[in-house]
UniProtKB/TrEMBL annotation:
Keywords from the UniProt entry: Monooxygenase, Oxidoreductase
InterPro entries in the cross-refs: FAD-bd, FAD-dep_Monooxygenase_BioMet, FAD/NAD-bd_sf
Coiled coil: none
SUPFAM superfamilies: FAD/NAD(P)-binding domain
Positions with biased composition (Basic and acidic residues): 392-416
The protein's name: FAD-dependent monooxygenase
GO function terms (MF aspect): monooxygenase activity
Any matching Pfam family: FAD_binding_3
Organism expressing this protein natively: Streptomyces solicathayae
Region of interest (Disordered), ranges: 389-416
Domain annotation FAD-binding: ranges: 5-339
Length: 416
């Protein structure tokens, strides 16, 4: 499959895939509908699983450098009582690395910096005119009459993916999760605080530090789809969270109405039958949009990109290479979509007795050690990509080469 690859969508998933394919020596074009790559959203949490995936393209350590959480943190009630105490070292020990919170713009810049100039074309709304097959290339239409033939098309066009609708017209598409979200990035409050996630009745607030001295705060609340504040979203946050524990009031005081992002959460709770058709591979939110309750949507998009490039690097015909990609990714992401939905039901629980029982159980479990609380991330955050990575030391690399031959995951000859 060593022909021109076209990536539709310049989000985190599309850009990661483009870097991985470029590093295999494949010509790549990224087509992005927006006029610029300025990402929507504030912060994003990258867990060790996606950091290991980024190691494959040499960017993992650049993300790890941005880790800001040290020491204490955990889960609280709106009055400030701690339900669960966690510390950064225990989390890192369990999953083989720290959780890193970074600004989305920093991640997009990092990915774009690894692509040759001219790879990304913005202001282009692309569609798949022909998905192709083993005998003929796929064809991508650019909306202005121009078409591009491609050996591989990566559909990374997000949760409302038009490519997905075209390839799988019988799939029901995204469903509303029942809750809405707000996000802000503001300067850190004057008084020190421990990173926290606070669970109330049908509402949640999280505060996490960024390396650059600012903080990323996010909130969720049960709400009808499409509901918007009658005045402004900062006022809505004050109504929901203004009387919650420190540092939440201070963060709201530092927030401007224009600085608040609000998004209703939809997810693909019905899995697709496959993540590919012909020479087209779906990836990221286009393939498996999930609730943000495990903070894994972007992490899984990054994993997808690395695994797709791995399968596309071989000499197999597209039908078999992409069937391998579906086989690797569909069961894993389906499982995480369902786990995220279960976590969503727990965090947005609204009934007073239900919340009381939930809080007692969560606090009781945590008394037996942080390991039990973190167990929900087993099999997610401890994932490793297929094959060798830049992070592997030379001895590991030599051992893997002896087992597999002289090609590493990037298709490079590691003997040179
Ligand atoms: C509140 C909230 C918090 C979150 N927090 C986290 C977190 O901490 N960690 C985490 O891992 N994930 C998190 N996520 C999920 C994460 O944001 C997404 O899973 C991730 O951004 C998906 O990336 P993507 O590249 O698949 O899609 P997107 O980022 O949606 O990118 C799709 C791109 O395709 C473009 N596009 C669409 N149609 C076309 C077209 N026809 N032609 C050309 N371009 C097109 C769009 O303009 C867009 O740029 C969160 C989500 C929410 C809502």
């Amino acid at each position: 499959m060593q022909q021109h690859a076209v990536v539709i969508g310049g989000g985190i998933g599309g850009l990661t895939t483009a870097v991985a394919l470029h590093q295999q020596g494949r010509p790549v074009t990224v087509l992005e509908r927006a006029a610029s790559l300025a990402p929507v959203g504030a912060g994003i949490g990258l867990a060790p699983n996606s950091q290991r995936a980024l190691d494959v393209i040499g960017l993992g350590d650049r993300v790890r450098e941005l880790a800001a959480w040290q020491g204490d943190g955990g889960m609280r009630t709106p009055s400030g009582r701690w339900l669960v105490r966690l510390d950064a070292a225990a989390v890192a020990a369990r999953f083989g690395g720290a959780l890193v919170l970074l600004h989305r713009a920093a991640l997009v810049d990092l990915l774009v910096s690894a692509l040759p100039e001219g790879t990304v074309r913005t202001g282009v709304t692309a569609s798949v005119a022909d998905p192709g097959d083993d005998e003929r290339p796929a064809v991508v239409a650019l909306g202005d009459g121009e078409t591009i033939e491609a050996g591989l098309v990566v559909a990374a066009d997000g949760i409302h993916s038009a490519v997905r609708r075209g390839l799988f017209p019988d799939h029901p598409g995204p469903e509303y999760s029942g809750f809405t979200t707000w996000r802000v990035v503001v300067p850190a409050p004057d008084r020190p605080f421990a990173p926290h996630e606070t669970w109330g009745r049908g509402r949640l607030w999280g505060t996490q530090p960024l390396k650059d001295g600012r903080i990323y705060a996010y909130a969720m609340a049960v709400a009808p789809a499409g509901d918007r504040a009658p005045d402004d979203e900062r006022a809505e946050l004050l109504r929901h969270f203004g009387d919650w524990h420190d540092p939440i009031p201070a963060i709201l005081a530092a927030t401007s109405p224009e600085g608040v992002l609000r998004h209703d959460v939809h997810h693909l709770i019905t899995p697709l039958p496959a993540f590919h058709r012909g020479r087209v591979a779906l990836l990221g939110d286009a393939a498996h949009a999930m609730e943000p309750t495990l903070a894994q949507g972007g992490n899984q998009a990054i994993e997808d990109g690395i695994v797709l490039a791995h399968h596309a690097a071989g000499r197999l015909p597209p039908s078999r290479a992409l069937a391998g990609y579906t086989a690797d990714r569909l069961p894993r992401t389906t499982d995480i979509v369902r786990k995220a939905a279960r976590a969503g039901r727990l965090t947005t629980m609204s009934s007073r007795p239900g919340v009381a029982v939930r809080d007692v159980l969560v606090a009781a479990v945590s008394r037996f050690g942080p390991g039990l609380v973190l167990r929900g991330f087993d099999g997610i955050a401890d994932w490793s990509p297929p094959g060798a990575t830049y992070a592997a030391d030379r001895r590991d690399l030599r051992e893997q080469r002896e087992l597999r031959g002289p090609q590493d995951l990037r298709g490079h000859d590691v003997t040179k």
